[in-house]
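ok here's the first one, seq then struct tokens
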Amino acid sequence: MLHTEFPLLILYGPTASGKSAMALRIAQTRTAVIINADAMQCYAGLPILTAQPSEDDMRAAPHALYSIWQPEESGNAQVWAELAATEIRACWARGLLPLLVGGSGLYLRALLEGFHAMPEIDDTIREQVRSMDQTTRRALLEQHDPERAAQLKAGDSQRTARALELVLSSGKPFAHHQAQPKTLLLPEVSVHAWVLETARDELYARIDARFDAMLKAGALEEARAFLGAHAQGTTPIFKAHGLPEFRDFFNADITRDEAVARAKQHTRNYAKRQQTWARQQLGDWQRVDAALTPELSSF
């Protein structure tokens, strides 16, 4: 038994580091619910490209918060954290162990450290902002909230859209909302958190091999169907690794081999950023070998 009334286990690691496999090993020995903490895996439509658990995985252990948003929905860290807190409390009520698994650091920080509550976005304003191109959104944000615009890269369409929606809906800039007190969702939680460590060369090889496996599983066909059903949007799923590259291939801008090579490279770049973020932000979290199952007896 875990030696606390309100336990929470967390597995953080870069993409393809083996988090899902480790979570399943833990779930086989504990009455655990695997709760998704990966932003891309919150979206429906691309289960192969976003490396969501297979049907066999889902049968092997209970899973939560996978494919909970449609591609056009604007999910974010606050919304996810509220949903995750509900799932975690449901686990505690049933005597189950909540096990968060993912590599979206901002999501985890929102859950553990709290967040500045943001007002509801007016639906009409959201539709207007989404219909704009990035140049127009950027110019309007510079006009209405120049401080936030200066903080964002010119090509950051998702955060630009979110900031513009916020200031147009509330009439107040991003900094005003950030200055408000934080909302803490799980003040009683007892956290035991691990960062999975994998040598960079090995991690890159795993990324390449996983992408090859995705192709064999039908990732290209999945992407073609997705793009045929959904117009280009500003939500995170439209930047899923492989999707922009496959879109270029479908448009005959690059070859299939070029699309695959670029997708692998972009995924490796992302994994490197995740590792850097973990070193800078999660220095006090326990490091574990991705090939092993951590010892839980002390928690």
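and now the second one, same deal
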Amino acid sequence: MAYDAIVVGSGPNGLSAAIVLAQAGLSVLVREAQQTIGGGARSLELTLPGFLHDVCSAIFPMAAASPFFSSLPLASHGLEWIQPALPLAHPFDDGPPAILDRSPGLTAASVSPDAEAYRGLIAPLVRNWNRLVPELLAPPIHFPSAPISMARFGLKALLPATSLARMKFTGPRARALFAGLAGHSIVPLERPGTSAIGLVLAAAGHAGGWPVPRGGSQQITNALASYFCSLGGVIETNHPVISVEDLPPARAVLLDVGPRQLLQIAGDRLSAGYRAWLARYRYGPGVFKLDWALSAPIPWRDSDCRRTATLHLGGSMEEIRQGESEAWNNVHSARPFVLLAQPSLFDPTRAPAGRHTAWAYCHVPNGSTEDMTVTIEAQIERFAPGFRHVILARSKRNTQQLEHSNANLTGGDITGGANDLRQVLFRPVPALDPYRIPAKGFYICSASTPPGGGVHGMCGYHAARSALRHTFGR
């Protein structure tokens, strides 16, 4: 059977691309290699029966911020967001944690003596959030509709996170909180541009929270898929695409894959120059991920850590800086920056009554097979003495196992490629339209295109709009 368009890959970006095309009245097929759809937004029983774990992503500030997701009737298709009392907590060895509260004022109070400095840095972003978000999640080369706001943001965002933190804050608490936010870039914090992700995630927390979906990240996927199918779309699972020659006839093919996979699937359709650019594409550090079935909540030393689904475990800015630099330089850190999620505190569907789940990872060299279990659990014990006593079972995945479960996680890289400044602006290649592949009717729509990693669907949205313009004349 022939289709107007085929999307390869059913992650949030692939499904978003499929929805945009189906909304335009086109016949669309989505093909997925795995048995379940979702890519990085899937949930499975990884430890014990009845304990539901998010396979990759678990906390969704950018999904809550996504202009495209907000335009869709996802609630009518089963998606329900849960907002924990706090978006984030960052505990310390001494004293209470720094917190990211929905209120900038309460957050500022937790990072004394830098309360006023924090408000001065973040409050303007929160005030202009609705104008900034479409710009932040747009292709890098475009005419901004809010040029002044973007210019003010850009002057700070281009700085290294360590430089901005030292420039704005005098105390260790605010510096550490900002370093943890910037650590989501998975780039050494002394590199230019690392302030951007810290500023965006802080503002997102205040403006829209860091929510979790009831029933796990799979529910985001299921809602997108349900809406797509309601538009007449078709999804086929257990259909790995080894070559584009395996696909039915279609006027457009959109590939929710990384550059390495694109070379494998469609390399013979590409020019030598484009293949050379793709071959130079760089992947960043990977992650080592743990999931736990727990007999009780994590016994955090401070009660604020039980008011959030998300914690940054890394102590001071200098400790986080060192850990991130080591992972980038192919060293396994003895004290890595650990990101931890505990959604079952707020979503009882994740575990049997009285039981809990938790999820954590640290950054490691790309392709690492090192077992970081002891190191990660030591970081948790540091702030939650007795944690190991509540573990019923654990699932561990190194970078190669993560890539085996999702081919887009090349070497365990969960953001679709290294997020240094050049590659954030020009991914996967320098181009006015980075989604358009120089082969008739072919497009790339993965996190290896702007605006990059995160569950927001905007890579797929922009790629589909490019296909509508260039292939379908819409």
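notes on #2: The chain has three domains: 3-81+215-282+409-470, 83-208, 284-405. The radius of gyration is 21 Å.
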